[in-house]
Each structure stands twice: as C-alpha cells, then as structure tokens.
Amino acid sequence: MPRRGASEPTGASELPLVEQAIAYVARHGWPWDAHQRFAGAGPAPVPAGALATLSLPGGRPLPPTFRRWLECDGRYVGVLGRGRKVQLVVRPFRELVGEWKPRRSKAWNTLATLLPGDVVPLLAEDDKLVVLYLGDADEKGEFPVLEVSADFMTSVSLSHPSFDVWIAERVGARERKIGAYAMFDDPVHGAALRAQARRNLGGWKWLSSELDGERVSAEDGRAAIEALPVGSPARRLLAQAGAVADRIEASQRRPKEVLTTEERARYEALRKDSHPAIAQEIASLDKCEQLGLDVVTQIRSLLAMAARERGQASEGPPSVPPAPSGERGRVAAAPRSFADSNLQLAVLSGLLDAGLIPRLDEERLPIAREEDEADWDDPDAERSIYAVNHDVVDALLAVELPAAALARVEALIWPDEHLSRWIFPQWSGEEDDFEIGDLSGLEQCPALRALDLSCSRSVDLSPLRRLPGLVKVTILWREGGARHRQTAAILRSLRARGVEVEA
Known about the structure:
Elements: H1 17-28, H2 32-37, H3 48-53, H4 64-72, E1 91-92, H5 93-100, H6 105-114, E2 118-124, E3 128-134, E4 145-150, E5 154-160, H7 163-171, H8 190-200, E6 204-208, E7 213-215, H9 218-227, H10 233-252, H11 261-270, H12 276-290, H13 296-309, H14 341-353, H15 390-397, H16 403-406, E8 411-414, H17 419-423, E9 450-455, E10 472-477, H18 487-496, E11 500-502
Parallel strand pairs: 8-9, 9-10, 10-11
Antiparallel strand pairs: 1-2, 2-3, 3-4, 4-5, 5-6, 6-7
Helix pairs in contact: 1-7, 5-6, 9-10, 11-13, 12-13
C-alpha cells in the first residue's frame, strides 16, 4: 500500500482533484482525524433527493466540486449529521467567528468589514477555523477556502482557491503545502489563488485585525482600493492596511543611495577586485538586491573587511563596540558584528561548525575545569562550572567574524553543544543566560537556511524577513514578558514563502 500523500498510480493525476480525493479515500480510508471521529466507518453520501434541494443563499448553486464531494460523503464537512440528517450550515462570517471566539469582538468587526459574505464551516480546531467563503465565485463557480486564526493574533488568510484543492490535501490525495498560504507560489494552483485574493480579500494573501498582512502585490492592493466606493468602510480599511505595508516594505529596502558618495565609489572599485572572498560577497549582495532586500549594512561590512585586509582603517560607520567587561577586560576585542552578545556567539558557533573560520584553541581559553580549579564547584566563585564564566564570554566575543565568512554561513543553533558548555558547563537549560534579545545584523548572513535559536519573547523577528534562503526556523521562546506585536505577522510571512516555522 502506498504511503499517505504519495503519488497515485499512473492515470490518477489526470482525474479532477475532487475525483482523486474520492478515489483516495475509497482506496486508503479516512485520514487519522476523520477515522477517530467516525469510528472507522467509511464515507456516507448525501442522498440524491436531499442533495437536489441544497443551494446557497439567494438561490445560488453549490460549488461544483463541493456538490461532487457530497455525492461521496457528507459527514466530513458536517452536511450529514447524526441520524443522517442533512443540513447545510451557512452563516455570515461575522456571526460565525463571533460565536467561535466571542472575546475577540473588536477584531472580528475589523475583519468583517472586508468579509461581509457568508461562510460554510469546514473544520474547527482550538485556534483555527477553516471555512468556504461565499463571496465572489470564479469562472467555474468555485469559492475560496479561508483559514481564520485566533492564536496570539487574530487574522484571516486565503489557503486554497477552491474546495477540491483543500479536500484533496486534507484526505491525503495531494501533498500539503507548508504554511497556511504557501500555495500562492504553487505552479498549478497559485494563479487561481492569487485571482481569488484579488476577488475576495482585497488583493491580500492574509490580513490581521491589527492591519498587518501581506499583499499579492502592491499594485493589486491599490487596484482593490480603487475598485471600492469612495468613503466605504472596506476602502478605508484597505487604505490603512496598505499604508502599513508600504512603510514596512520601505523600511526593508533601503536603496544603495543612502550610502555616502565615498562608500559608493569604494564599493564600485571592489567590483574589479579579483579576491575570491570579495567576489563571492559581491555576488551574494547582488542576489539580495535583486530580491529587494536591504544591502546597506552588508555593503558597509564588506568595505570594513576589505579595509582591514589591506591594513587600512575603515572609514565607514563604526562597528558595535564590545560590551564593557570591567576588571576582566584583558582581551583585545575585535569590532562586534552584532549588538546582541548571544547572537554574536551563535554566529561564531555557526562559523566554527561550518569550518568558515579557524578552530579555537580550547586550552588557551579560561574555562572552569574540575581538575585545575580549586573552587570549580563553588557557585559563588569567580570561575565556576555552575555559573556563566565571563572571562570565556569576553574571549569568545573578541574573535573576529569576517564578512566573507558571515556571507557563507548557512545554519545557526543556539545554545549549541560546545561554546555554551565552555561558558556555563553545568547550565540546566532553565536559566535565560543564552537568550537572544536582538536579531539585528542577521542580514549580514544572507546564505542562512536554518535557524534554531532561544529568544526572548519580546525579540523583533523582522530581520528574518531579509534572509532570502531560509528553509526552516525554530524559535524557543523563553518564559515571561510579552511577545513583540509583529511576531505573528512575521511568522506568517515566512510561512507564506514556504519556510518551515516552529515557534
């Protein structure tokens, strides 16, 4: 038997998606959630006589793929209830979500301004509601599927262009996309989903009640505003959301023109340099610039690196100075690349693991060791395995992180298995000594693909948006404090790009 979600035999992919879903359930049975709900029973079709009487408000016909599915089964989507009672639940969006999460009345009022139509509930979970939105149908008579989220941010997103795409993924006949709205880039269904966004969500892929979100494009967002009546609540809401999106996008794309004339001249001169590291760095910068990402910080880092390698003093803006170390300041520190000490250490660890910089000589580090420290087991001693060793921290922060190496690192894990043990040998994992509170500067590492970091709840994740190659992000939140207000929006934008997010 093929695994769930695997390709069906030759010829199956030529069937319409809803037929593929019906055939898949007939062959493999229900997915685990439905199997538990239905106690192992198979599909239960809606009787033909009852199905013939079903229609949408206003006498509109059922979407063709939804009707075809009901001919196979009515229980999974709640049309066929106990005692084989047939009932198609159709509710106004505002009414349904208000009963689902009544304490979020203000948020629902905001989103209902953009979603005045009715919905058919398809699936309800603790913090997610999936509905078929009965707004404007496409040329085939199909309506989009929305995911309504009520976790720490209230939002709505377009997940599928039509019922058949959703049900095929849900039962396992089609491989699921990572993220609630990753399908916007799908080569088969992406165009249809983008069209549904323009038709039913004002040109947005998703939008929160706080007006955070992501547009299909700035042009689509503006066109949707212009199509609405002047002074209408929906037009005002989309205009406000568009202004927020414009500010965010502008802050993420600083043009090279903000560089000084001298910096631009030095950067252009570097393009003629034959040094392999410089050539690789410039190629990476060109890629980031093509993606519309901020490259100013990276250009300045490159200029500083080139100046150091030629034995010149960098004339660019000063790097972040090392943190004061009081009487322990015996180490001659290199300029810091990151404002946050733990982020600096995390990147150092990543460079060492990838072999991008020479290995450190552990014997030369002032590490607390049982065999040579008389007070190694005294928590109050200056150097103890039961506390942070600040001498080791100072020594590690003094290690230079070359710009060429930063541009090539692909993975960061923090706390790691080596440096963190040198710093705090008996760290229990409960203290916040390795917590990262500031991710600024990560744009210096455009090749990053995987992050696994321990962060404070208030950390601003926006630097992650400027990393074009991210594939997976894992964030362990430390206890206490409030999350940054943009956290949910940023995580959703990463998922929209297909990034696997665990947070």
